[in-house]
Amino acid sequence: MHYEIKPGQGKIVTAAIDRYREAMKGVTGEEFKALKRAFFKDLIPRLDKIIAPEMMLTYDIGGITRDDRESCYVGPNVSIERDVSIGENVIFEGNNYIHAGTSIGNNVLIQANTVIGGEAYSHEYIDGKLVHLPHIGGVIIGDDVVIGSCVCIDRGLLGRTILCTGCRIDNLVHIAHDVVVGTNALVVACAMIGGRVVIGNGAWIAPNSSIKNGITVGTNSMVGLHACVLNDVPDDVVVYGVPAKEKK
Ligand SMILES: CC(C)(COP(=O)(O)OP(=O)(O)OC[C@H]1O[C@@H](n2cnc3c(N)ncnc32)[C@H](O)[C@@H]1OP(=O)(O)O)[C@@H](O)C(=O)NCCC(=O)NCCS
């Protein structure tokens, strides 16, 4: 499954999220919070129905839907839920947990203790009560991807979290819901990638950096050690520091 960010593609979201964003345009402060609460209040009862197992999304990306584990190595204590599509030559080291709705390409290495497609960290006060917002999207992992140990990759809200072909994720990285990691991008140890972030093709995200939700890091750009990225990063630049600024 060859998967890469194409110009203008950016985030893969469903029409529902697009409608939500459209409604939120130009809205700030308390009004934004109220609209967000209203959106999820409306969505959650419907999700209860949608989330029934038989309704769980199945994927047909690039024509690959087959579940061929014969050429794969599955280590001890690996759990793979239903509706997981697996390519050829995939190595699951011990204790991996792969949630429903995950699609994995060919030649992928997933090191020990990694969780893919888990529920996102998303909570909202609704009528004074803290409510967890269920995510029903999935995860797509392209070909030739390497994912280190103790990595958590959350599934999308309604769309997918995507690791494009050839990207490399180091140990202890957190990748939140609906993130896109570009082709051959590198995300190094302990980086925290917030929800809906897009990491451009060939970008380098250094250890311990935090990237705020919704940010885009440009193609071939580098985020330095321990940076806190609060604004979009253009293509072909180096940013570092807290908050991250472009290296001149
Ligand atoms: C951001 C980075 C690319 C800059 O490297 P560089 O261009 O060689 O920059 P320099 O080392 O010449 O430093 C230039 C200035 O920026 C500062 N600086 C460099 N990296 C910094 C960082 N991550 N955070 C804050 N300040 C940083 C330096 O202290 C120096 O400041 P000064 O001019 O006041 O002395 C580099 O420091 C970095 O973070 N690389 C990532 C390394 C990595 O990913 N390692 C993991 C390998 S598995």
Description:
The strands form four sheets. Strands 1-4-7-12-15-18-21-24-26-27 form a ten-stranded mixed sheet, with no helix packed on it. Strands 2-5-8-13-16-19-22-25 form an eight-stranded parallel sheet, with no helix packed on it. Strands 3-6-11-14-17-20-23 form a seven-stranded parallel sheet, with no helix packed on it. With 248 residues, it is of the alpha/beta class. The N and C termini lie far apart (38 Å). Strand 9 (123-126) and strand 10 form a beta hairpin. The chain has a single domain (69-246), classed as UDP N-Acetylglucosamine Acyltransferase, domain 1 (3 Solenoid). Helix content is 13%, strand content 28%. The structure holds coenzyme A. Coenzyme A is lined by residues 188, 206-207, 222, 224-226, 238, 240-241, 247.
One letter per element, helices H and strands E, the order comes to: HHEEEEEEEEEEEEEEEEEEEEEEEEEEE
CATH class wording: Mainly Beta
In which range does the helix fraction lie? 10-25%
- SS class: alpha/beta
Average pLDDT metric: 81
Q: What kind of sheet is the major sheet?
A: 10 strands, mixed
Secondary structure: number of strands: 27
Low-confidence stretches: 6-14, 47-69
Q: Rg to the nearest angstrom?
A: 18 Å
Which secondary structure elements does this structure contain, and how are they paired or packed?
Elements: H1 15-24, H2 29-50, E1 73-74, E2 79-80, E3 85-86, E4 90-92, E5 97-98, E6 102-104, E7 108-110, E8 115-118, E9 123-126, E10 129-132, E11 138-141, E12 146-147, E13 152-154, E14 160-163, E15 168-169, E16 174-175, E17 180-181, E18 186-187, E19 192-193, E20 198-199, E21 204-205, E22 210-211, E23 216-217, E24 222-223, E25 228-229, E26 238-240, E27 245-246
Residues 188, 206-207, 222, 224-226, 238, 240-241, 247 line the site of coenzyme A.
